Amino acid sequence: MNAPVSPPVQTFDATGATPVMQQFFDMKTRQPDALLFFRMGDFYELFFDDAIRAAAALGISQTFRGTHAGQPIPMAGVPHHAAEAYLSKLIRMGFKVAVCEQMEDPAEAKKRGSKSVVRRDIVRVVTPGTLTEDGLLDARGANRLAAVAIRAGQAAVAAVELSTGEVECFATGKDGVGPLLAALSPSETLVADRLLADDHLAQTLKICGGLIQPMPSALSEPQASETRVKRLYGVDTLDGFGGLAPAEIGALGLIAAHLEMTQAGKLPALRAPRRAAEADVMSIDPATRSSLEIDRTQNGDRNGSLLAAIDRTVTPGGARLLASRLARPLLDPAAIDQRLDAVEWFVEHRSLRERLREQLKGSGDMARALARLALGRGGPRDLACLRDGLKTGEKLAGMVGGSGDPLSPPPVELEGALAALTPSLHQGVSQLLNTLEAGLGPDLPALARDGGFVAPGIRPELDQARALRDDSRRVVAALEQRLIQEAGIPLKIRHNGVLGYFVEATAGKADPLFQPPLNAAFIHRQTLANQVRFTTVELADLDARIAQAAERALAMEVAAYEDWRAEACALAEPIQAAAEALARLDVASSLAEWAEDAGAVRPVVDKSLAFEARAARHPVVEAAVRRAGDPYTPNDCRLDAAGEVAARLSIVTGPNMAGKSTFLRQNALLAILAQAGCYVPAKTFRLGVVDRLFSRVGAGDDLARGRSTFMMEMVETAAILTQATPRSLVILDEIGRGTATYDGLAIAWACAESLHDTNRCRALFATHYHELATLEERMAHVSNLSLRAKEWNGDLVFLHEAADGPADRSYGVQVAKLAGVPPQVVARAKEVLDRLESKTESPAKLDDLPLFAASAPIAAAPVVSAPSAVDGALKELDVDGMSPREALEALYRLKGLLKT
């Protein structure tokens, strides 16, 4: 998503502007490239070009309000209570929005003078990568802000998810920027404007998607960046983050500068940067991610992706963590085994797994709730989310820790999570949990200013204020009875707008109130014809307290909220650790749930160069086939880059629709699942870690850059041939199909040779060039596989079985028939095919075929007619026994028969 094309920044002459418009001009000058949501009472209003652009984008009315410099002022507005929906639409369209709020009550402004303007200020700038509100975010998807910096030839990518506080930093080469950004899938990417002059980098940023936000190059300079990062984290040195390289500091500095600008000085609760090198995760370039449909299909839909097929998570945090693991599979077999140990433990403890998953459903999203609280955008419900999450964690720690199976204790991955979920191990977290459990009421509003969220009995003064606010009649009646007893005469407590609350007695019985000792308590206020009115110190105080009770109650609740919010923010680190622990438990248990449903097994991941899959299945296709009630045909695949136990390169042939592409993708997805720490759908699977995964499957063009389908195919193939290593896995489908037959065959042949001899990597090479099957005899580590099909009663039956050996034919004409190609075209194609395949015709002499000549229509079947009279007469002639005269007479007779 790139920002919509913006008109030149509008400049304003504030001469003669009203005080409110002068205020608008001041705010707009601070954020000239953003749409300014200017708070005016119950609406956010936009003026001038902002109004015109927003009205067009949102489909709302654009009107005019007042004039400036003799011209009407364009204006559009959205209700304050519905602003979130409009913000969401604008952000998805690539706009940046500055939110200018009223910072005081209008009544306060009037105290400075009747013409005083309400004080306003920009409280935040909303961009795609800085969203934190639930209504603007996908609860099950990450929303990352990324930054790219390059210093002295070294590149770095930093990413922050503001909604959870997670920060990551990657050191890489320039060629590694694309795969890293593709894995992170940021909503917004910051980059120094000077770097956009590099066409290759600019194109890489475009391919990876998200809003590209150019930043002044000075913001990525190491010294200035270091200062900003220190300020962001509130530290005096960055040594605690490890030896950050200048490029890493530059990338983090861009993020720090962007957050300072967009968050109006409010510091988010960020975790220390989690550093990783390019060599820590499998490299998957954007084209490969797209073709394999790891988290999104090529249409951009989550349904139909690998992630959707295996996702059984029950918490938002767990869903995001699973997506992150699939996007960045690990390279360390020990770390992979730790994840697999956790999944296996839950597979073996099914009953416990079911109870744990039921508890997890009520844990909420602590990470995002904490982020909103830290940025001042949260409310009582976010505090309740922390309470529920911490309480759930406490229950799970006791449940899993006390599983009662001494022979099978929780593995390391789960032990670490359980430790983070035990509040008693952190006194502050335990106290916060107790405070929130006791202090929060049952019915919680979204915002603290709405009140009513502090439980009764927590603060006595708040209970008194509420009692005065809610039960003032009862309180006044009780005081009235007590004053009657003290005075010994009939009294009434009444109220009016002038005196407030007062004590009223009839004129005939009021005399005792003027005499000692009652006159010390009852203060005379007013005498009427039939009544005398008094007040008391207690009543005057009650009057003031009742009048202010609602305001005081709300102020005390807001103060309680702020205290609890500050306490939670001070405990950000252990709370974030607890949120991550819940996510890890969710992922491990959900993968165990999926493994049981899908019949998946634990893979063996090691440092070898092997790829051995037995009876493997494609997880997405199998799920779809099962829903249709059909069986799925599993297949084996064996590769070995060392060439010791299997071929290095397998040539895959077979007809279209037989499943070649599915077979190729299936094996690539198995590698991703295994290295992400998931079980795999197979009987057995062994994998030597794959450092880079390459996929060239499918066809597409790039019209914006003037690249044809074939050109795109060659560009992606070139990247594979120059970057694949012996530890890589490559799947190629139909290389060379976009050009002339012999050109394509030559290119495919040369690519196969290069993969085998130069890259020496594990590769599956699907093709319709059956000539490539001879490579098995020419090269040491090449094998042939084919997807089988059979002809039955003139129809083609796909078996979807991968068997050793090449395919005998492509069955293209039969597939065309299945696709509904007109019968006369199919028949003509068969005729041409027969001539091409005949021994008497040379395939090289294609110009001899009348392919472009007009040909008579081919009848569906020969027409059989009855014998004619001429036919009968010819059969009766005895040609050998006829004289010349008899032969001449017979000829005339036959001619005569033709005329009849």
From TrEMBL:
<dbReference type="InterPro" id="IPR007860">
    <property type="entry name" value="DNA_mmatch_repair_MutS_con_dom"/>
</dbReference>
<protein>
    <recommendedName>
        <fullName>DNA mismatch repair protein MutS</fullName>
    </recommendedName>
</protein>
<dbReference type="GO" id="GO:0005829">
    <property type="term" value="C:cytosol"/>
</dbReference>
<dbReference type="Pfam" id="PF05192">
    <property type="entry name" value="MutS_III"/>
</dbReference>
<dbReference type="InterPro" id="IPR027417">
    <property type="entry name" value="P-loop_NTPase"/>
</dbReference>
<dbReference type="GO" id="GO:0030983">
    <property type="term" value="F:mismatched DNA binding"/>
</dbReference>
<dbReference type="InterPro" id="IPR007695">
    <property type="entry name" value="DNA_mismatch_repair_MutS-lik_N"/>
</dbReference>
<dbReference type="InterPro" id="IPR017261">
    <property type="entry name" value="DNA_mismatch_repair_MutS/MSH"/>
</dbReference>
<comment type="function">
    <text>This protein is involved in the repair of mismatches in DNA. It is possible that it carries out the mismatch recognition step. This protein has a weak ATPase activity.</text>
</comment>
<feature type="binding site">
    <location>
        <begin position="654"/>
        <end position="661"/>
    </location>
    <ligand>
        <name>ATP</name>
    </ligand>
</feature>
<dbReference type="InterPro" id="IPR000432">
    <property type="entry name" value="DNA_mismatch_repair_MutS_C"/>
</dbReference>
<keyword id="KW-0234">DNA repair</keyword>
<dbReference type="InterPro" id="IPR036187">
    <property type="entry name" value="DNA_mismatch_repair_MutS_sf"/>
</dbReference>
<dbReference type="InterPro" id="IPR036678">
    <property type="entry name" value="MutS_con_dom_sf"/>
</dbReference>
<comment type="similarity">
    <text>Belongs to the DNA mismatch repair MutS family.</text>
</comment>
<keyword id="KW-0067">ATP-binding</keyword>
<dbReference type="Pfam" id="PF05190">
    <property type="entry name" value="MutS_IV"/>
</dbReference>
<dbReference type="GO" id="GO:0003684">
    <property type="term" value="F:damaged DNA binding"/>
</dbReference>
<keyword id="KW-0238">DNA-binding</keyword>
<dbReference type="InterPro" id="IPR007696">
    <property type="entry name" value="DNA_mismatch_repair_MutS_core"/>
</dbReference>
<dbReference type="GO" id="GO:0005524">
    <property type="term" value="F:ATP binding"/>
</dbReference>
<dbReference type="Pfam" id="PF00488">
    <property type="entry name" value="MutS_V"/>
</dbReference>
<dbReference type="Pfam" id="PF05188">
    <property type="entry name" value="MutS_II"/>
</dbReference>
<dbReference type="GO" id="GO:0006298">
    <property type="term" value="P:mismatch repair"/>
</dbReference>
<dbReference type="InterPro" id="IPR007861">
    <property type="entry name" value="DNA_mismatch_repair_MutS_clamp"/>
</dbReference>
<dbReference type="GO" id="GO:0140664">
    <property type="term" value="F:ATP-dependent DNA damage sensor activity"/>
</dbReference>
<dbReference type="InterPro" id="IPR005748">
    <property type="entry name" value="DNA_mismatch_repair_MutS"/>
</dbReference>
<dbReference type="InterPro" id="IPR016151">
    <property type="entry name" value="DNA_mismatch_repair_MutS_N"/>
</dbReference>
<dbReference type="InterPro" id="IPR045076">
    <property type="entry name" value="MutS"/>
</dbReference>
<feature type="domain" description="DNA mismatch repair proteins mutS family">
    <location>
        <begin position="728"/>
        <end position="744"/>
    </location>
</feature>
<dbReference type="Pfam" id="PF01624">
    <property type="entry name" value="MutS_I"/>
</dbReference>
<keyword id="KW-0547">Nucleotide-binding</keyword>
<keyword id="KW-0227">DNA damage</keyword>
